[in-house]
Task: structure prediction
Amino acid sequence: MDSIIVKGNGPLNGQIPIAGAKNACLTLMPATLLSDEPLTLTNAPRLSDIKTMSALLQSLGCEVSQLQDGQVLVMSSHALDNHVADYDIVRKMRASILVLGPMLARDGHAVVSLPGGCAIGARPVDLHLKALEAMGAELELKEGYVHAKAPGGLKGGTFEFPVVSVGATENALMAATLAKGTTVLKNAAREPEIVDLADCLRRMGAQIEGDGTDTITIQGVERLGGATHPVVTDRIELGTYMLAPAICGGEVECLGGRIDLLGAFCEKLDAAGIEVTETDKGLKVARRNGRVRAVDVTTEPFPGFPTDLQAQMMALMCTAEGTSVLEEKIFENRFMHAPELMRMGAEIDVQGGTATVTGVERLKGAPVMATDLRASVSLILAGLAAEGETIVNRVYHLDRGYERVEEKLGNVGAHIERVSGQ
Ligand code: UD1
Result:
């Protein structure tokens, strides 16, 4: 298994291009199942999760071609010949459940294995299933698979999510585009990836209003056509690289960055003493002098502070002046990076969903273990600020969500290299 070796050094300076959003692409790809005509996605990120979703779609009979070094995906579902999403692929990635709604909406039946994914909590899919049931789906759980049927087609209905769920909103939104009548989704997720999905579905001919608010109204249509759609900027990759100069000092311009994707996060950076300015190419981030100030963070659904940036923010707080309290409200087991950061000299006390971080002057390099996708990159960020060498082991999680991380950080002056394992 590969490792990443990081050596702490001075300030970082230069530009980092931000890719298309993994989480948007993973919901845009299954949208191909809603139509016979081709769906083309541009600005796609080159990640192993995207390859997993391609393999899943291909197993169902979709044609998937990668053009321009993987940045353009052309998909066609005109010849779907299998409606079973197999455990062997689905277990690799939780987002696989997103094929359920579209397949069911288009053909009235689907069988999908219950998913696996990052080990950051129980992460059930009950809300995906309840929302589809509200549209008339008949569901049965047998031997680890969801067997779904909608013999006369899905029908519009009103569903209020008891908890805000990004994935369940996406599944229901896709399914509702082909349901008979009007569907109203209440307490829907408002993430930019939902708006991006709705934009793409509208290009395909769907009638959707209210995306980006907590109530989405979908008027079902008979059929959807083809479309070409650019994937929105990855706000989590953006936030991660904005933290690199915040931790190491220097000035980095994140190309393609937008404040509206990360309002709550930018407010926290400002409070910590980091300068963020909009440029015509993206966002420029600078830490000019001294240590950052400790700030408290609570993760929340969008537009709140994203849970997917909590681990990276903790890495910043490890060397801040003062004590910060980080509260994780979305996932119950998302502090697995804390003991690894403590191996590097961080002072962190975790009690349930709350981590109290007392900043130290300097972290020290150490061998550490990547436990999930965002935890992996938080350890790299911490390593950039640490004295000596940090070896991040088990980086396969990283490749699920960050393309060319060594190149992107290396180009702004970081000492970082990948060592291939056996
Ligand atoms: C998506 C993102 C993930 C991010 C998360 C929260 C993708 C591919 N992944 O995950 O990176 O961390 O949003 O912003 O887009 N829940 C239930 N029942 C369900 C579904 C969810 O109880 O059926 C709970 C979850 O356990 C969690 C909360 O709802 O506590 C939010 O999860 P959700 O928004 O669904 O996350 P994902 O869509 O899986």
The two ends are 6 Å apart (CA to CA).
